[in-house]
């Protein structure tokens, strides 16, 4: 039961909070709408000030919502626009804290997974994939995630997936080759194997052939063979990033080395990649092993001490263990060693 006075206080607090969030959303929206390469420096500075003035959670939620609404549409977004938005995220990720990039990345990956499973006709999947690719380009996420996504797409291998593989390789193929040439080689071999077995299935063979040609060009480090490949815009924005990121280098040390599976199951098993991330869920690993050890340990003590433990209301295994250790130890060293066990 909540008394009426407390209820009223809660309602006004909610209204106040809503009003605050609405104001914050307007401010962030205004900054995002004005975002372009020349004013990136001032806008990222203003964003940092907002992060200092408001709670991180509110800022992360607001920024992610606004960016997702701006970038994930049914039509293909201009790559320049996507790059600038992701560059802003990456600057905040390096200057404010890694939870900024982590929050945005998780939202993007979950949405991408959801849309991949549904048969959406629009270009949302491409836009989301471009966001993930640029998060990798600007050192927010490690190549591990990109390889996970590519493996997933190769394992499904329908026409939609081939389209997405081509799109991703065109954006980050050569960076992947630099970061982990062996993993890329394995992926290409797997894709070739899939293509040879699925040859009868596709009416339009040209896409598959084109994908394999692109992969071979990647393997041989031949940029000319990939039509429309232009690394210049990304390089220019990377230079800009280096001037705006306060920490040394381009922030390789703050790259999130997180796998696709970890991101998709974050609600169930927690977010280990964010330091201090609070989480209240089922334990990650079943502690059956520790329970058997405790039971074994309890089996050795006399029934008299067990009875005493019961009288003292030692109602869990661990409490009983500690009580029995303290009562039955020879000296303090013995007790210390048993407690450590």
From TrEMBL:
Listed Pfam families: MIF4G (PF02854)
GO biological process, one term: ribosomal small subunit biogenesis
Cellular component per GO, a single term: nucleolus
Subcellular localization, as worded in the UniProt entry: Nucleus, Nucleolus
Keyword vocabulary terms for this entry: Nucleus
Primary localization: nucleus
Domain of life: Eukaryota
GO molecular function ontology, one term from the record: RNA binding
The keyword Nucleus appears for this protein: yes
Stretches assigned to the MIF4G domain: 25-222
Family: Belongs to the CWC22 family.
Subunit structure: May interact with EIF4A1, EIF4A2 and EIF4A3. Interacts with PPP1CA and PPP1CC.
Function: Plays a role in targeting PPP1CA to the nucleolus.
Protein name: Nucleolar MIF4G domain-containing protein 1
Source organism of this protein record: Tachuris rubrigastra
